[in-house]
Design brief:
Number of strands: 0
């Protein structure tokens, strides 16, 4: 494990480290979206679950998370 607030000296390693952190944040946020929908008793189809969990767009995931509390259906998250 790396020391707290360790900064990689190599730019490539630094970029990879930051990308890994961003991916972890996105994964957690996507899991939160699914959890809120399921907690509300909404059925999350395999297709919707895959779409949510595949997203790496933090802004989109944040919008979906806020919407997950009030949408009448999972399909309402994805305007056509």
């Amino acid at each position: 494990m790396l020391p707290f607030k360790y900064e990689f000296q190599d730019p490539g390693m630094r970029r990879a480290h930051h990308e890994g952190i961003a991916e972890g944040i996105a994964k957690g946020k996507a899991e939160d979206v699914v959890a809120v929908l399921e907690h509300r008793g909404l059925i999350v189809s395999d297709e919707a679950r895959a779409r949510i969990l595949a997203s790496k767009d933090l802004a989109q995931l944040q919008r979906w998370l806020f919407a997950a509390f009030t949408v009448p259906s999972v399909d309402a998250l994805f305007p056509h």
